[in-house]
Amino acid sequence: MGGDHISLKRVWNAANAAQRATVGGTKRVVHSVLDRLSREPRVQSILATTTPQLLVWLGSGRDPLRRWLLSRRLVGWWVTVVLGALVDTRDHARAQEVLDAAAPVWSERTDPMWRLRELQIRCATGDPRRAAALVDSWGGFSVLPEVASATGAGLLAELGRWPEVIAFFSDRLEQGMTVRGNLIEDALAGATRMTGRYEFVVGLLTASGQPQLAALEVGLRTEAALLELLGLRQGAAAPEVAPGASLRLRVYADALSSPARAGSPLPRRGVGRPGALVWCTDRSYLLGTCVSAWSLLRHNPDLDLEAGLHVVVATDALPLATTVLSLLASLASVKIDVVDVTDLMPETDALRTEYGLFTPGHRLSVAAYYRLFAVEALNASIGADRIVYLDSDTCIRPGAARLFDVEMHGQPLAARSEQAGTHAADVSLNGIAQAARRLGLDPQAYFNSGVLVFDATHSGVGDGLARAIHAAMEEPERLTFHDQCALNLAFSGRVASLPESFNHFVRPAVATSLDDAVVAHYLERPKPWDSLYPATNAGPWLNELSALSSSVGPALMGDLLRSPFRAPGPLRDGLGLHWSD
Q1: Full DSSP string of 25-61
Q2: This model's pTM is above 0.85
């Protein structure tokens, strides 16, 4: 009987274990399905708008039943799902409310997803030093859960602790962890550039065997080779680049070796128009500016502006900009006025360069604000009917003269909506939506500032620019996307719709046809002159670069190609790193 008893007990235990395994497996499957479902943009939008209030209600009362409910495992899991939706839709204010309500109950939890959400929200809504203190209270970056690895790396980058970013990634790999997400790629790219440890980081990426990091590895290999090609990196072993693997390297090598082609200047065939066109740039964006200007001139011989072309330049880039742009003006038989920005702007200390959201160590170049002062000065000093502003990250195709005939419908400004032609639930645009709501504006009306057409005969232009400058100087805390937000605030309700062909959005990893584009605008980061820019859309921009190089010759081209790499100080968004415009 004793043997039978033992056998029955074993069977009973095995049955219980199988039941637990089945239940556990079912739970994991259900959680996996729900997790995937919760990341769908439409579902996230629903979660972000319907459930936070309930969770705040649960956490804010003193009723023991509410606290008991909030402490349940299922409700706790649901809290992390809702927080994830709020983080992905960048509704950080409501995420903070839910976190504040749940934290008293969950303050001692070590659940990986809870810690990820808590860290993400602390990073997004507060001082990064406080977020780092939170990590220290858990035992330091080395004990962060695997799921929080990318956020941890981004936080170290935001703090400017560049060597630690590399050490942290190396430690993650030693622990056998997989690290995913744009934050880790951004942080590693910045750390590699700031420390110069290309070979070491590429070695880590190779050893990781993680396919999602393959593009970063190729980009850093290419950049190290490019730095050697430009004479900016010597005495350090460069990671090998597969022969013929990089179109960018071939184009750059040709640009540095092929002499300028002799030829007659491009004739202007158009009738002079009382219009002006302006770019603004610093040294980091000068290469892009020159590519944009030359693409405009060579594709639009019918564009002849009486008020000419104007380029506002940071002082340290002025000599090179003057030399290159004077040559282009001569070749195209046009007038290009190169202006030192110090002639237009006050002291820039009051202008905010930190983004109004969490980024892995990026800061905006103050040159983004130049457009406000440049257009204001042009509007006051020249007799132009229209003033067109173009970003440096644009390529211009035939048809640009039609920019000066855009229907303004009685408004002082024409611009393209950031969300035109997209679904409102598109997660990539939720940062724009939050920036608009922060200003009290309709997200659907929030416009992109990369291509702007001003009716200089309209009295509202001067008033609007004055308000935009006031917002930039006096209310920087309201501006998520800096000067773009300032313009949206100042011209709210007074903007005509600019046809999409005049501001054709090109996003880094989304294959885009330029067949209908007059102005191709390379949004987001990286920019097309960055070695990390995906090959998907690099071809058209590199073709324009080749056209520029054949006109200016290898010596000047070498100086232009070096210019993005030479900006001193903190990591700036000039080496292709820019958020919105």
Answers
A1: HHHHHHHHHHHHHHTSHHHHHHHHHHSHHHHHHHHHS
A2: no
